[in-house]
């Protein structure tokens, strides 16, 4: 593992390489894709990106939690959480490459 | 929303781009994330979330039906942690 961190800049670069647009427009499009996905999730809708995975919004009920340091009981309020379910394609891509690299 | 609907929306917002280009843009983003994870890299998208790969070491499993022991090979699984901004927006 190279332990590098990929960021928006790398995604913009990938878009720039793939399509003949300016770097600034590529960056804006990356941002817009993330916004469109986020907006949909905030509306409570799921986002399914085939061969990548799906983002799902789950509603959690209130439950009693505990402060691990003090042992004090605190209520955890009902909330919505975002979960990502990787597609089989993504999972197999990850394992294929790792095996090839001898990991 | 599915991928084709995302592409559709983005295409409507960018009438100067060909549908084909918009498809390539969305795929380039997803492929870049997939490629990074396949290399074992982390992908951090501030406000949205972070993708990483976790290692699950090889272990001895058991066939729950027969009770027979089976070797389970080491594997790598992708993980996603939602970013602060989106977590807050989900609960507003």
Quick overview of this protein structure:
The complex is a heterodimer of chains A (103) and B (92). By secondary structure, chain A is an alpha+beta fold.
Can you offer a commentary on this structure?
The complex is a heterodimer of chains A (about 100) and B (about 90). Chain A is an alpha+beta fold and about 100 residues long. The model of chain A has no long low-confidence stretch (mean pLDDT about 90). Chain A has a three-stranded antiparallel β-sheet with strand order 2-3-6. Chain A starts with a strand and ends with a helix. Chain B has three helices and five strands. A three-stranded antiparallel β-sheet of chain B has the order 1-2-5. A two-stranded antiparallel sheet of chain B has the order 3-4. In chain B, α1 packs across α2. With about 90 residues, chain B is α+β, with helices and mostly antiparallel strands. Helix content of chain B is about 40%, strand content about 30%. The model of chain B has no long low-confidence stretch (mean pLDDT about 95). The chains are: A alpha+beta (about 100), B alpha+beta (about 90). β1 of chain A pairs parallel with β1 of chain B.
């Amino acid at each position: 593992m190279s332990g590098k961190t990929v960021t928006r800049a790398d995604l913009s670069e990938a878009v720039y390489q793939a399509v003949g647009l300016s770097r600034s427009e590529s960056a804006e499009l990356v941002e817009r894709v993330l916004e469109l996905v986020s907006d949909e999730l905030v509306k409570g809708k799921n986002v399914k990106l085939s061969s990548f995975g799906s983002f799902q919004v789950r509603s959690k009920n209130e439950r009693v939690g505990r402060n691990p340091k003090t042992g004090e009981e605190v209520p955890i309020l009902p909330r919505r959480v975002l979960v990502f379910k990787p597609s089989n394609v993504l999972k197999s891509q990850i394992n294929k490459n790792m095996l090839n690299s001898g990991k | 929303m599915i991928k084709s609907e995302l592409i559709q929306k983005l295409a409507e917002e960018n009438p100067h781009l060909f549908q084909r280009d918009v498809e390539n843009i969305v795929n380039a983003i997803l492929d870049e994330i997939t490629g990074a994870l396949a290399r074992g890299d982390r992908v951090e998208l501030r406000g949205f979330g972070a993708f990483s790969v976790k290692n699950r070491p090889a272990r001895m499993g058991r066939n729950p039906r027969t009770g027979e022991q089976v070797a389970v090979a080491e594997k790598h699984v992708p993980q996603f942690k939602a970013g602060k901004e989106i977590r807050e927006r989900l609960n507003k």
